[in-house]
Amino acid sequence: MLNVYRKYYGWKIMLYILGVFFVTMAFTGFLMELLFDALGIVPDLAGGETATEQTYFELNYTFYLNLIAFALSGFLLYVYRRGLGAPGQYRDPVCGMRTDDSEPSATHDGETYYFCSQTCKETFEKDPDEFAHQHPEAGASQEHDHH
Asked: What's the CA gap between 30 and 112, in Å, rounded?
């Protein structure tokens, strides 16, 4: 990331950003240490418990919170891949996003396709046969993989 900043903004700005990042991360680490100490959750390594005696896997609240987070992530991935709840009655054949008839459109083999952006429309127009197998109606069953 810093290399990108160096290429676009030069060494001076990149070093400034590096300094800001470093100070921010160091200060945040210091604040987290104070917060953990105030909450009493800093591990006591001098307490006599060795690493082999510590319990690393327990069925406690964090395990169940992780299960909930994992299930929620799976659900959100499913919703994202299917486009559920997104507005629009048409599906962009290039990226799969839902869109409506106010967006850019193109006709190929007598079928009108609607696009989420001008970029997707231009991609379609370069090789319409690659994307034309996608049904333009959003509710139609289809196999779709993002490109």
From this structure: 58
pLDDT value, residue 141: 44
Q: How close are the terminal C-alpha atoms of the chain, in Å?
A: 24
The structure tokens 């507005």 sit at 87
Q: How far apart are CA 8 and CA 4, in angstroms?
A: 6
Tokens in use for 143?
Answer: 């196999």
- Nearby residues of 100 by Cβ (< 8 Å), 6 or more positions away: 87, 88, 89, 90, 114
Residue with the two structure tokens 């006709």: 107
Domain boundaries of the chain, sorted by first residue:
1-41, 90-131
The percentage of residues in the chain with a pLDDT greater than 90, rounded to a whole number, is 27
Distance CA 65, CA 71 (A): 10
Can you tell me the distance from the alpha carbon of 136 to that of 110, in angstroms, rounded to the nearest whole number?
A: 12
- In whole angstroms, give the CA distance from residue 71 to residue 66: 9
Prediction pTM value:
0.40
pLDDT tens per residue across span 72-90: 999 998 887 776 666 777 8
